[in-house]
Amino acid sequence: MPKDGPATVVAIVCKNMSVLVCGHTDKTQDQECEFPATRPQEGENPVSACKRLAKDELGCRLSTTWLLHTQDCEDDGHPSTMECYVCSPLPAEEPHAQNERLRWLNREELAQARWTKEHEELARMVGIYWDHLFQAEHL
Asked: pTM to 2 decimals?
């Protein structure tokens, strides 16, 4: 993790009035959602981390990336930050699931989904600003 940057970078990938989420499943949680996220590599800025996440995990390149929100969080029990970026894939590219946990949610599904503790506040914010996120000048 870079010393001066966020511990986590979150990509809110928007396309066709839907956002891409990951289902998080383990023994204590059944299908809680979170947005795709990564940790910046040494010397990597947050936007580059988003682009790497999109290419490596989602199989697409991004046309736009802009900062929506910076959120305080905990990282292994230590205070940290999470930077949340709104992204859109290049028009000719469709993010594909490298695993079956990825899926698209519309606004209604976003509101009804169960979220991990770390992404619950962010999901509410995405719902509140939904129309703004999908304005043509951003995508």
From this structure: 0.85
Structural domains counted in the chain: 1
Q: State pLDDT tens for residues 83-127.
A: 999 999 998 887 775 557 788 899 999 999 999 988 999 999 999
Could you list the residue range(s) of the whole structural domain that residue 126 is in? 8-133
Please spell the DSSP secondary structure of 1-15, one letter per residue: --SSS-SEEEEEEEE
- Cα 15 to Cα 64: distance, rounded to the nearest angstrom: 11
Determine contact, residues 95/57, Cβ cutoff 8 Å: no
Q: Kindly state whether residue 3 falls inside one of the protein's structural domains.
A: no
- In this structure, what CATH number is given to the domain that contains residue 34? 3.90.79.10
